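Quick review question:
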């Protein structure tokens, strides 16, 4: 008796395999799922950007933020571009996503972290 192999992935609703192995859509249409509420949090955790240390953007010093981002960017195996560009884009992404709710003191600290990041990578 042959062993049936179970797969871990799920198939999309509304598709099925025909006898020849091709996929066809059924007459039923699947309902559209709601997008996750915190997609920016998912991007930060799961994207091919960086493996960030937890709480890096809450550090008290701009130099410490820049140093942590630099370390993460240089050690990350998931990034698709250079270390400087990845670190700077993640910092900019965070600033843009927090938006208007970011207190002025934190915004200035993060903007100073951009300058420190530039200095750390020797791009002054």
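Suggested answer, residue by residue:
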């Amino acid at each position: 008796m042959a062993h049936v192999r179970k797969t871990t992935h799920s198939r999309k609703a509304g598709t099925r395999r025909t006898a020849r192995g091709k996929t066809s859509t059924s007459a039923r249409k699947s309902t559209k799922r709601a997008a996750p509420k915190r997609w920016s949090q998912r991007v930060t955790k799961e994207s091919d950007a960086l493996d960030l240390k937890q709480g890096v953007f809450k550090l008290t010093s701009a130099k410490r933020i820049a140093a942590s981002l630099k370390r993460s960017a240089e050690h990350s195996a998931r990034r698709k571009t250079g270390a400087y560009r990845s670190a700077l884009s993640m910092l900019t992404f965070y600033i843009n996503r927090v938006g208007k709710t970011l207190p002025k003191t934190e915004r200035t600290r993060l903007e100073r972290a951009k300058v420190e990041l530039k200095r750390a990578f020797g791009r002054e």
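Why it works: The mean pLDDT is 79. The longest helix spans residues 104-120.
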